[in-house]
Structure formats: C-alpha cells, structure tokens
Amino acid sequence: MTVVCLIGAPTDCNSSYLRGPAKAPAHIRAALHSDSGNPASELGGELGSGIELRDMGDLPLTESAADDALIEAAVTRALSAGEAPLLLGGDHSVTLPSMRAVARAFPQLSILHIDAHPDLYHGLLGNPRSHASPFARIMEEHLAQRLVQVGIRTLNAHQRAQVERFGVEIVGMRGFSPALVPPLPGPVYVSVDLDGLDPAFAPGVSHHEPGGLTVREVIDVLARLADSRVVGADVVELNPDRDLNGVTAVVAAKIAKELAALLAR
Description:
Arginase, Chain A; eight-stranded parallel sheet; two-stranded parallel ribbon; 7 helices; alpha/beta
C-alpha cells in the first residue's frame, strides 16, 4: 500500500470574496481524528490499518509569490519518497502548484474536479492566480490531458468559451447522476472544492451556490475511481468562519478519508 502524505496549505490570499480558508487545515485535521467518528473508509481500509497516513503538517506559507514554489516542492518531496500527496487547502489556487509537481511525475494525467464553479477564468479582478482561475493555468501549461468537472452550475459566457478552448468535459447538476461521470483509468488527480456540495450539506464555504451535490453523491463519484490509479488529490475552500457546528469540517474530513483510501491503493 502507498503511504498518503497529508500536506496543509494554509493560504487564502487569492480568494475573490471572503478570507477564511487559510484556517481550514487545522479544522479538517481535528475532524479527521475526532472521537466522534472512526477511521474506517467506505472505499476500504482504515486510517492506520490499510491506509497509512503521514502528516507533514502545514507549510510555512507567507501569502507571497514564493508560496507556489513551497507547495510544489512539498508535493515533489512526497512523490519522490513514493508517497501519494493529499493537500488540504486553503483556497483553490493551491491546486496549480500541486498539479505542477504531480504532472511532472505522471505526464499522462487526467483530472477529476468537483466544484460549483469551473475555475477557468483567464483572470478574475485582475488576478491570474485567483482561486477562480487555477484550471485555466493548468490547461494552458498542459499539465493534464483530460479535465472532467463535476457539479458545475455557474457557467457564464467567458467560462463557456474557456470550456470550448480547453476541451473540458462538464458533468453539470441538471439531471445529475454519478453514473454520468466518465471512467478515468488513470493516472488521476482529484480536486474537491467543498462548494461543489449544496450549502445544505457544506455551509462552511465562502461561495454558497444552491443546487449542488449531496455528500452521498460525492462519495459515489469517488467510488467510481476505485479501479483507477489515483496519484494525488486536494480538498479546498473550507471556510471555518462560515461553518455551522463544524459540520463542513466533518464533511471535508470524510472526503479526505475517502480520497486517502483511493490514494493508498
């Protein structure tokens, strides 16, 4: 089994609306190890038994341009050690440097991206590193040969044009079923933005977008990767300042545990 390397990326300087996701890694860890649950994954194995988790803690990010290099280097170290990186954001901008490292190790990479938003803006509010833009940068840099986005329900004209430009495969929310998500044999990188879920299930996010996925649907989508080679993942955009009774942190920890089970295979 592959060791899963947990990496905290506490930054939200590229958020376009609210700050707060920089506080998220500690809240996800607390929920992941809370006595309120147990370490079993629905996809097989348990943390500490069948899923070996090495937590390297939070990176010393400074909300400067140097942070991308720190994230990329941490993911590279994990991969070089034969470990599978699981990044805890932070806002969605952290996916780009993580993907740079993973794509270097796995050139024929596909991405499964769960989100309310396609995050394909060429730039938002004058910021090309906005959390609304990482997948535009990823596709421009040819870091993935295939990008499948699930849960999307906010496509505007600009992002529709970007979808066409980059050949993105959209599985939107109208008429959604996990069975509509195409098979991705691998290698696969999985990026889960918590606002892909309906805010009834994940209120602790900066951008509430009604009409989203249930927790069960997200887990069922991840289960479709059970026979795929998942080589890296992230969980992003928890905003503890907006959470209610820590419920979104628990959801984030549940998703992180299921991703760890996939990465450990």
